[in-house]
């Protein structure tokens, strides 16, 4: 049940306010939501009203608090004992530059200092708060990342706001003529920091568990021998505790005053680095195998440039390894990438027969001659 609070609740009207609320409520109630959108001020007498309601009904939530009332609840410890949320600042993205897009959201530059990631689902608040916590965790562990400082409302959607003063994505820097080889090295420098971060068991979601589900889904859509071996290969990948970004590409790396920072941290996970390489292959080449224009739409660069960046990235990631080793590692990553893309396409865009056929053919080519999927 939801009840609106308004005006001021202080010693002069706290008792009457409590009676007004109780008169609307049954003896037992699954959930009581107090909408504080029009509440201007609450004193200690008003806080005691909220506390008694909390004791009586247990599951009481306060929503849409303005900054002033939220600060009162926070300073008095109420935010630690019950669910209290702020009203979200409203923001317009009309006419704003799109600087990146992923499966979960679109990133806009709203002014020279600020970018906002707008989530595509209207039910994304939990996901937004989860990403903020993941970004904080990564930052504390030494990962160069931007931490969102605010949550805003854009129409029926929500977004995370980042302060990135005059920052440019690596995609934009490439289009401005910056050296591809140097940017590839700088991107890999960040990636190595991520992969060298070893987590505790269960600290982040397991990418292997997710990949096993991809293979299980794809198995009946492949020739029997290929589907069975694919699943065996994925299950045999070692369960390592390396941190993974999960969506690592040139639109998720921002440069600000010479410092490179990662954004889009909601895909953080843990597992063998081959999973990261598989996602990177899809971003730079795999998504555009059947339509070379896809990479321009997704990353903002031509496929030829994307291929150069991918090859330069491999050179720096596998520094010192010979060509045979690198090619073998890439083929293993491609198998995982095609498995992910095949599942995604069948589930979301089954009409795209060319992608389904390409992934199927590639898996039928690569899986039979592959002994394992790790390096």
Q: Output the helix-strand order.
A: EHEHEHHEEEEEHEEEHHHHEEEEHHHHH
Structure classification? alpha/beta
Helix content: 40-55%
Would you report the number of β strands? Answer: 15
- Low-confidence segments: none
How are the SSEs placed, and which strands pair?
Layout: E1 2-9, H1 14-22, E2 32-42, H2 44-57, E3 60-65, H3 67-75, H4 78-81, E4 83-86, E5 89-90, E6 97-101, E7 105-111, E8 114-119, H5 125-140, E9 150-154, E10 157-163, E11 168-169, H6 170-175, H7 180-195, H8 207-218, H9 224-235, E12 243-244, E13 253-256, E14 259-262, E15 269-270, H10 274-284, H11 294-299, H12 303-317, H13 323-348, H14 353-366
Parallel strand pairs: 1-2, 2-3, 3-4, 5-9
Antiparallel strand pairs: 6-7, 7-8, 8-10, 9-10, 11-13, 12-15, 13-14
Helix pairs in contact: 1-2, 7-12, 8-9, 8-13, 10-13, 13-14
